[in-house]
Structure formats: C-alpha cells, structure tokens
Amino acid sequence: MALKRLWELDAIGITDDGVKDNTASMQQKRLQETFSYDGNRYTVRLPWKAEKSLPNNHSQAYRRLIRLEDQMQAKPEEAFAYEYGMQEYISNGWVERANDPGSAGAEWYLPHHAVIRHDKATTKCRIVFDGSSRYKGVALNDLLEAGPPLQADLVGILLRFRRFKVAVQADIEKMFMQILLHEEDRDFVRFLWRGFDRDITPSVWRFTRVCFGLTCSPFLAIAVVNKHAEDNAD
C-alpha cells in the first residue's frame, strides 16, 4: 500500500487524464442542455439517475425536527443563530412555502440540523440539510447523479500560480443560492420548520435554489459557472 501511494504521488501532474476529462466534459454538456438563463439567473434541473419515486418521509423529518428542538432548548444562543439563519433563507426567497400537498412518490423532506463552528469569525452556525438521510432504505442522494469533479486541478493551479508576479482570486458569495431550481424539482427538497415554537404545526417549505446537502450541488454550481464563462468568452 505504501509503495502504491509513492507511485501515485510520483505520477501527480504527468498521468494521462484524457479519458476521465472527456467523460466529465460529456456529462457536463449533457447536464448543461437542461439549463435555462433569463438574463439574470440560471435555472437548473436535478440530475436524476432514473425514474424518481420516493416514499413519503414526512414522519421521519418531523421526528428529526423534534430532536433538533430538544437539542436547542438547552442552547439558546445556538437556537437564536439557527433561527436567524433560517430567516435569511426565507427573507431572501431561497425557500418558499409548499402550499400543495404534493404527489405520491414525488416529494421528499430534508431533515436538517446545526453544525457549530466556534472558530469561524462569521458563520458560526450553519444549517445543514441532510440529503443522505435514509427512509425505508432510500435516500434522495441515492437517486441523484453526483457528477464528475469539475474543480480545477490543484497541481495545475499551483503551477500557473508561479507564472506571473500577481495572482488574483475571487469568491462567489452564496454560490449555490445564486442558482434557481426548476419548479418541477422543488417538491423533492421540502423541509419542516416552525421557528422552535412547539405550540404551532410545522410549516412545509421547499427550496427555490440549489440546496446544500445534495450530492449533485457542487457539480451543478460549477457547471453553471463554466457554461456562463463559455457563453460570455468574448
């Protein structure tokens, strides 16, 4: 095993990735054919592996919400940060109320929980939506194509970094939230929320944007950036 790793390290940057790159390019092009652009934002479809049919996991999502509320009762500061983060989703239109009951097999509820990072200067509490949560042996991520990694090769970045005196880097703020999710896929990214008020029935919300926690989200986001760059190369 150690010898194999040594050979792999020696081959970094000189191996022939032509076949892998060609496959990734074909998958990206096929996905990009489903994109639409209104002059302001891109709309994408979820990359389904096959015919989508899911059990109704509302009861599981409700149990997970109860567990979250129990955990937050003893942590008022974290509860406040969580509610603030959820309100950001709502006020920015990243999620919307799901007023229709949904069709059998055509809806899914994402459980959610908090990840607390005290070492972060800005977002100490991140809301994580669990696309890998299983119900009756099935998870939403099981039915979605993860897609090939489209991130730039790290070795290539390091080599190009040395070519010039000045290097520039940029960051797309809230990258996933900049991309609209097609109307027909939104009922598969529902979730329950009631602001930690157990006196009311949880409301059903659904994402209007590409959601954290789905296996395909990084692929979708970078494919959109690549397409926008290609279409505006001039």
TrEMBL record:
<dbReference type="InterPro" id="IPR043502">
    <property type="entry name" value="DNA/RNA_pol_sf"/>
</dbReference>
<protein>
    <recommendedName>
        <fullName>Reverse transcriptase domain-containing protein</fullName>
    </recommendedName>
</protein>
